[in-house]
Amino acid sequence: MNGVSVIICCHNSAHILPETLTYLSRQIVLASLKWELILVDNASSDNTAAVAEQCWKALDKPVEMRIVQEKTPGLSFARQAGIQAAVYDIILFCDDDNLLNADYIQLGFDAMAVDASIALLGGKGQARMDIQAPDWFDRYAYQYAVGAQAACSKDITIERGFVYGAGCFMRMHAYKELQQAGFQYTLSGRTGKSLLSGEDNELGYAFSLIGFTIHYNERLHFTHVLAANRLTFSYLKKLKKAVAYSSVLLTPYIEKRNEILFNKASTFNWTSQLLRELLFLLNGYIKYPFASANFKIDILLDRQARLGKILGLYKNRRILQHPENWLPWLQ
């Protein structure tokens, strides 16, 4: 059905949902554009669902909101539950800490309508925080789904291959094609206190491998509300390590993209890759004493990334050492 299904995946989100829902209630859309709101309560232990219902009712319920329960923790499980409940052709993933500009739904729908090959469409996030931004924030804002995803609005299938999951539009029939091919997530997304991620990259790579495109639109603006506990250097180090670990599990996708999109034979070798990461890790330790203050920050974060990759390579060696078994759904 022609329209937009907005999906908010929540885990213990009662404290931040009212503002997110208030911004959604202010969406300005043409009368001809139908949309709905689906809130997925993903194994919450607080009163997320009750707060959402009360808030949406107080906002005069601009459109219908349905609450779906998903007991298995993990963002990809929550999104799948939301997708199954959706009735419209275009899905919009709005994180529980995303504040969408008033024209977001209409602009995204119009952009998707122009080109049926677009499976994913992303926008530009800007940060809002209650504390002064750390000195390192601008250099690593992308880790928080903040900033432009390209120099201008364009097809980013080749140069990037994915968009932030925050504020991302997805075409339903493209997703159904993936499902029919047998696609299953390798990465389940963040769960509880775990920072493992990469499911956004995985979805984009998967779409590109079956012929769809990934686009960025600089007119799509949203605010990402960042809690103070996510802006510590300790948190960023954990995030870098977790993201790097997850990136190892995306190796099959990257190698398949090289083969299918760039006509390049796979060069991945588990032993060589492990040695490479160990060498970079050692190199960082050697350079650290002689580095400037800013560069020391970069080295410390790179160290966490190398450790994450080394751990990912070691723990997943049985999969990575057998390329013939990669992505069976794509065979």
CATH architecture of the largest domain: Alpha-Beta Complex
**Oligomeric state of the chains present here:** single chain
Number of domains: 2
CATH class annotation of the largest domain: Alpha Beta
Rg over CA atoms, rounded to whole Å, is 20 Å
Strand content: 15-25%
* Major sheet description: 9 strands, mixed
Shape: globular
Distance between the termini: 31 Å
Average per-residue pLDDT, rounded, comes to: 94
Q: How many E strands?
A: 9
Q: Poorly predicted ranges (pLDDT <50, ≥5 residues)?
A: none
- Could you give me the name of the CATH homologous superfamily of the largest domain? Spore Coat Polysaccharide Biosynthesis Protein SpsA, Chain A
Structural class: alpha/beta
Order of SSEs, N→C?
EHEHEHEEHEHEEHHEHHHHH
Task: List its traits.
331 residues; alpha/beta; 2 domains; nine-stranded mixed beta sheet
Structure report:
This protein has 331 residues and is of the alpha/beta class. It has two domains: 4-228, Spore Coat Polysaccharide Biosynthesis Protein SpsA, Chain A, CATH 3.90.550; 251-330. 42% of the residues lie in helices and 18% in strands. It has twelve helices and nine strands. Strands 1, 2, 3, 4, 5, 6, 7, 8 and 9 form a nine-stranded mixed beta sheet that branches. Helix 1 packs parallel to helix 2 (48-58) and helix 7 packs parallel to helix 9. The longest helix has 23 residues, at 293-315. The model has no long low-confidence stretch (mean pLDDT 94).
